[in-house]
Amino acid sequence: MDHFIEVLLPIPLARNFTYSIPEEQFGMLRKGMRVAVPFGKSKLYTGLVVELDTDPPTAYEAKEVYQILDEKPLVSALQLRFWKWMASYYMCTLGEVFRTAVPGIFLLESETQVMGDSDWVAEHGTPENPESPESLVLRALEHQKALAISEISSLVERKNALPLVNRMLKAGMIRVQEKLGDGYRPKQVRFLRLHPSFQEEAALEELLRTLSRAPKQTEVLLHLFQLQQGVNKPVKSTELEKQVGTSRSVIKALIDKDILEEYTLTQDRISYSGGEEAQKLAGLNPEQQVALDTIRGFFRESRPVLLYGVTASGKTEVYSHLISEALERGEQVLYLVPEIALTTQLVYRLQQLFTSRVAAFHSRQSQQERAEIWYHLQRAEEKASLILGARSALFLPFKNLGLIIIDEEHENSYKQFDPAPRYHARDAAILMATYWEAPVLLGSATPSVESYHNAKTGKFGLVTIRQRYGGILLPEMELINLADAYRKKQMSGHFSHRLRDAIIETLAQKRQVILFQNRRGFSPIVECMSCGHVPGCPNCDVSLTYHQQRRQLRCHYCGFNRPLETECQACGNTNLDTKGLGTEQVTAELAELFPETRASRMDLDTTRGKHAFSRIIEGFEAQEIQVLVGTQMVTKGLDFGNVGLVGIMNADTLLNYPHFRAHERCFQMLTQVAGRAGRKDYRGKVLIQTYNPYHQILKQVTTGDYEGMYKEQLYEREQFHYPPKVRLIKITLRHRDWNRVEEGAAWFARSLRVVFDKGVLGPEYPPVSRIRNQYHKQILVKIPKGQPLAKTKNSIKRIEKSFDAISNYRSIRLIYNVDYI
Ligand code: ADP
Ligand code: ZN
């Protein structure tokens, strides 16, 4: 008899689907396993079993499951519970959470593109049987760059090619096409050793004698022995090449003569190459020790804790003590960071303490690397028991989670903006921790107003560290009045002479400089001096940004670009001027002012590659780079030892941003970037260039008055009804047709007002109201404390139902952003 099961598909539909499965296979099935199922006319999806033995569907005839893809559940009941919470809280579908939560490689579907792996073929040749499906696929991939799985299906004349594809993936014959096309198969590393025939002492002596006329080859052998450290430690081919400093040809000659032997090993990607010898934890100073003890106390009361410690107060050291305790108890630890740049630096720091137990998890890793970490956690191995990750690490299959750390908790990037689920990793982590009864520690030198409010009202425990480690003073801050400097002609380009001289002085002391400008590109605006025309993006309502290096105008919203024209497209005049300042121009001016200085830029444009971050960060750490110019990327928790000066090119763009959070963010950004200066042995200096030197926020930044900023912001939010005093749901309507968005938004807002009255703002155009040729309009729903959230969401959902029933509106996209920040 057939059984029926309920399957979750990774698509944005608000329901699951029922499939049938024969008796004998049903017995092998568990909830949380993946199955390959047909969907629609000819599509094939990977779905997740969420219910066993349900009733047959009434509205349609159940199709049969093609194949069970797992031997044991990939997703636990607890994960599924977490997903359900997320879908409901953030108003999206379970399928959308599913798609975000598991590495893409677990979700093969008919559209997934796979590619051949030429390395594999080079190594193994083509499979023996030319008629085997593997051979067919590999041959087809010799002629085509990529094949969709559906195409493979027709190629091998099977309706279900997923098992075949999975098998070939596992064997390393093919790869899934990825954006950051990094190798898919377990990484093969080449090693070298002496050919076994020279194991005997006598044979080796004989060899060295015969080689005496080939000094280069002898040298290679000696280097090899040295690297083997007398214990036959495996030596990577690349390592030997580097040691010898010659080309590979000498090594190749030795291999050809059967003196050296090359062999490959599969290297686990998350492996750690250092020794197993862990460094000891740093002893804490009295203030850090008190903080640690207080944190433990709050943990015993099961309260999340906010650690508010000034920059370089040693928060990371305090975390390390807690991590160490959890790992000793055999528990897993999740350490969230807002930015991949941070994982680069922290992984290294934590590996010193916790060796191979540390594993990074983020979106720049290949699918294979992410899948490996998934399995490690599931098996609850000691390896990879401390996960250092960006927000998506939250979805990993923990087995015994014992501690969550959320570093730089104030960072916006913890909130997923697009696509759904638009979750806040900090808030979701706090919820998830309750499942495990695991303690949660939030840390920041500039806590978000929300978290500080939670701490002040007792929902979180509050722990403070006021002193930098080692008694180093917080950097000395100075505001530079740009209007004054221009008037007195004390400017070179965008550098005031005060800033220029401070750079000279800092470099003379052999210290490094960070320059912060929160815009990339050369200059944000190109303007015609005669008619005032500003070239805009044809797809979006924004002006194009000039990128000098490529002599291009680029849209930062959709990526549109075109060469910079020599004359105005409106009036033909050739008098074009650039306005505003981007990181590229700062770097160019710097090169003119300091031609001898080695500078680097860190922004979205320079960090696209997989290893781009690490290269810049390592270069700065090694002091090969003297000046680092960057956007907000440089503000986030980086720990460099030798930065003497931080210069903020222009603080005003941060002040004048139209958002209820603008001042809070400005305070955070400036304080954080300032915090990169003078972290270790001496007091650093910060220079802030601005047209508004008397602005309240800048005063609070320079005097380190977080408390003052908090009080003022809280008061304003109370007055104007913003978080943490109310909750926000932002509803965005999107469509190609301007009129339709107009009408639909008006209808939706009207209906919301019937229920929520004054709690509805808008509809309004966002600052950029057309993106990729789609018009946007927004409505903000404010939910006072005390008004039940679930009921509110239900009301909104009911309005959505009526909205969708109007044929004219049905094609308008509705996007919910719960706890919009
Ligand atoms: P935060 O995370 O608060 O910004 P860090 O933990 O990065 O601060 O500390 C700043 C610097 O001071 C780091 O280089 C760190 O190694 C050092 N440091 C902090 N506390 C100690 C300690 N107890 N012993 C030794 N070094 C410390
Ligand atoms: Zn655009």
UniProtKB/TrEMBL annotation:
Zn(2+) 2 binds at C537, C540, C555, C558. Keywords: ATP-binding, DNA replication, DNA-binding, Helicase, Hydrolase, Isomerase, Metal-binding, Nucleotide-binding, Primosome, Zinc. Residues 296-465 form the Helicase ATP-binding domain. Binds 2 zinc ions per subunit. Pfam families: DEAD (PF00270), Helicase_C (PF00271), PriA_3primeBD (PF17764), PriA_C (PF18074), Zn_ribbon_PriA (PF18319). It catalyses: Couples ATP hydrolysis with the unwinding of duplex DNA by translocating in the 3'-5' direction; ATP + H2O = ADP + phosphate + H(+). It is an enzyme of class 5 (isomerase). Its cofactor is Zn(2+). Zn(2+) 1 binds at C528, C531, C568, C571. Its EC number is 5.6.2.4. It comes from the Bacteria. Gene3D superfamilies: P-loop containing nucleotide triphosphate hydrolases (3.40.50.300), PriA, 3(prime) DNA-binding domain (3.40.1440.60). Initiates the restart of stalled replication forks, which reloads the replicative helicase on sites other than the origin of replication. Recognizes and binds to abandoned replication forks and remodels them to uncover a helicase loading site. Promotes assembly of the primosome at these replication forks. Belongs to the helicase family. PriA subfamily. PANTHER family: PRIMOSOMAL PROTEIN N. Component of the replication restart primosome. NCBIfam families: priA. This is Replication restart protein PriA. It comes from Robiginitalea aurantiaca.
